[in-house]
Write a structure and sequence with these properties.
The complex is a heterodimer of chains A (about 325) and B (about 290). In chain A, about 30% of the residues lie in helices and about 20% in strands. Chain A is an alpha/beta fold and about 325 residues long. The longest helix of chain A is centred in the last third of the chain and has 15 residues. With about 290 residues, chain B is an alpha/beta fold. Chain B starts with about 30 loop residues before the first strand and ends in a 6-residue tail after the last strand. The relative contact order of chain B is 0.18. Classes of the chains: A alpha/beta (about 325), B alpha/beta (about 290). Chains A and B meet through α1, β5, β6, α2 and α8 of A and loops of B.
């Protein structure tokens, strides 16, 4: 029952189903809630609990040219309102994904975006090539990986490198290319602009913040890798600030990531300028969080008399 | 297997029934239940027993599986805490855990009272393989005895001969003895300080227990199920290898998701001639003792 007139109805007055759909980098999503790479496995894990096709999009864990074993020792440390991880990008490789996981995922009927990792530009290109034409909805380039040809400095820490890997992947595939930015930089807008100029269709930010913890009983760093990535509510203010800044610096759409636990967290990122949001660590604590966020956004739209979630993108910026 | 842990060399000794897998091939059903606390009682020595109403978990659980409990409605402490099931009753719809207070999360857990509700994820992981018919020897150390209580209750009806070696620091810290005796298990207890039973470790009694139950053929060999501190599990591995007794051990580690998505709970597994990283939460927590590199 569509109502005529503008979207600014009086609050509390019920209207037709609000529109939660968004389109990002040409990918149509029924709602703006996605999963964050590395927190959702290959989808089967949480499919045991709920119908994951309700999600706007699924982003599967980073895949490399060959299987990567990941880091030895302890990979997790709880922090105040957060989690440190140094998984080390363990993954079975893109070929295993295409053979064993993709056939099941493609039948879900919701866009599947594949995160890709590499130690050199050539490796990223190779993974992108193997995914090209597979039917996946898009590629998310994880540029927080160390570039072994530049002394292990992460691709995403320097605009030139970030631009080069983006350009190489862009040229290797017809798929939408989303680049996931690292926050561990002097000026994220610099990186964002370089990546946009190199052909990225969208940006996702942020990846984890580097951090560590020490066990005072045995006087050793807790993580086997010593340094890990911090995620969870603790990083939300930083992530939000970065989305705000990047939204003011580029024209391509953004996916906001970082400590989103509830629909109001998601709204903050949307109002800062994000077209969609990704939910990561929250799933460990509250597996139904993504569904509750979708529901909460819908209710907010209804109660605030907003016709579509897209009306709220950047709403805090005017 | 090409996801090999770099720099490792290992004998080609992985068992045929190696459970190391790369990702899940099927979707394993599990539940989130807002479970009402029915009982929450201190057992002594910093141990507590918690029984909750969680009918979906209770109906589909098997011994050796665990649940991931949310200990705070807030974000501190942040992560859930995993606990092996000490028991479950599909008819009553209840699950029971026995836990030790070891940190912030378990300390907070002690404050919950009957009538309050806790969010539970489960049942999770692979439990003990219950298809055998030869004598079963359970070896439990400290709070590790908890999942073995569930095993004892499950095999009770099969008429299988079960004996148990249970150890703890001190008499007050022993758990599961009564429940196991009720389930028809022949129980021997040990304490580090000699305040009850034999003074020493339960593994000190293991060779005799194996000899006492072993038949004449390989097919009548007893099986060992063990859960406890890592040094104890290493002894189990040694004894099992030396006596050629099949053994299954339950591991524990810090976990985040508990369902196989985050890859945070890795353990080193032998798979054929290489070592790989497995997940305690989904490849385990129960493993063939021969496949784990402790």
């Amino acid at each position: 029952m569509k109502q005529a007139g503008s979207g600014s109805e009086a609050p509390g007055r019920l209207q037709a189903q609000p529109d939660l759909s968004v389109t990002l980098a040409g990918i149509k999503m029924k709602n703006p809630v996605m999963t964050a790479s590395g927190t959702f496995g290959s989808g089967r894990e949480y499919a045991g609990l709920y119908d994951i096709s309700a999600l706007g999009a699924i982003v599967v864990k980073g895949l490399s040219t060959v299987p990567w074993p990941g880091n030895p020792g302890i990979r997790l440390a709880e922090t105040t309102a957060g989690l440190l991880n140094s998984i080390g990008l363990q993954n079975p490789g893109v070929d295993h994904f295409l053979e064993a996981d993709w056939p099941w995922l493609r039948g879900l009927g919701t866009p599947v975006i594949v995160n890709i990792v590499g130690k050199t530009v050539d490796e990223y290109v190779e993974v992108a090539r193997r995914l090209d034409g597979s039917g996946v909805a898009g590629i998310e380039v994880n540029i927080s990986c160390p570039n072994i040809k530049e002394g292990g400095l992460a691709f995403g820490t320097e605009p030139g490198m970030a631009g080069r890997v983006t350009r190489a992947v862009r040229d290797a595939t017809k798929l939408p290319v989303i680049v996931k930015l690292s926050p561990n930089v002097r000026d994220i807008t610099e990186i964002a602009r370089a990546v946009e100029a190199s052909g990225a269709d969208a940006l996702s930010l942020i990846n984890t913040l580097t951090g560590m913890a020490i066990d005072i009983r045995n006087r050793r760093p807790i993580l086997g890798n010593v340094i890990g990535g911090l995620s969870g509510p603790a990083i939300k203010p930083v992530a939000l600030r970065m989305v705000w800044q990047v939204a003011g610096a580029v024209g391509i759409p953004l996916i906001g990531i970082g400590g989103i636990m509830t629909w109001s967290d998601a709204l903050e990122f949307i109002m800062a300028g994000a077209t969609a949001v990704a939910v990561g660590t929250a799933s460990f604590v509250n597996p139904l969080a993504p569904l509750q966020i979708i529901e909460g956004l819908g209710k907010y739209l209804q109660e605030s008399g907003t016709k579509a979630v897209t009306d709220l993108i950047g709403a805090a910026r005017v | 297997m090409t996801e090999r842990v770099e720099g490792t060399t290992v004998e080609c000794s992985g068992p045929e029934d190696s459970r190391a897998v790369r990702g899940q091939a099927t979707v394993r059903r599990w539940f989130q239940e807002n479970a009402k606390i029915l009982r929450h009682d201190p057992l002594g020595a910093g141990l507590l027993q918690l029984t909750l109403h969680a009918p979906d978990v209770a109906a589909s659980a098997s011994p050796g599986q665990f649940v991931n409990l949310r200990v705070s409605e807030r974000v501190v402490p942040f992560l859930r805490r995993p606990f092996s099931l000490a028991g479950f009753d599909p008819d009553r719809g209840t699950v029971t855990i026995i836990y030790q207070v070891v940190g912030e999360g378990t300390k907070l857990l002690t404050e919950y009272r009957p009538g309050q509700v806790l969010s539970l994820l489960g049942p999770l992981g692979r439990g003990f393989p219950l298809g055998g018919s030869t004598a079963l020897i359970l070896v439990g150390g400290g709070v590790g005895t908890a999942p073995l209580i569930a095993v004892a209750q499950a095999v009770r009806r099969t008429g299988r001969a079960v004996s148990a070696l249970i150890g703890a620091r001190t008499a007050e810290a022993l758990i599961g003895e009564d429940a196991m005796i009720t389930a028809g298990v022949k129980v021997q207890v040990c304490t580090d300080d000699g305040t009850r039973g034999v003074k020493g470790l339960p593994t000190d009694l293991l060779d005799d227990a194996i000899r006492g139950t072993a038949g004449v053929s390989p097919q009548s060999r007893p099986e060992i199920f063990a859960c406890g501190p890592v040094p104890m599990l290493k002894v189990i591995q040694d004894v099992a290898r030396r006596t050629e007794t099949p053994a299954y051990i339950s591991l524990e580690t810090i976990m985040a998701c508990g369902v196989g998505a985050c890859l945070g709970c890795s353990c080193r597994l032998k798979s054929g001639c290489v070592e790989i990283f497995g997940k305690v939460c989904t490849d385990g927590p129960v493993f063939n003792a021969r496949e784990v590199a402790l």
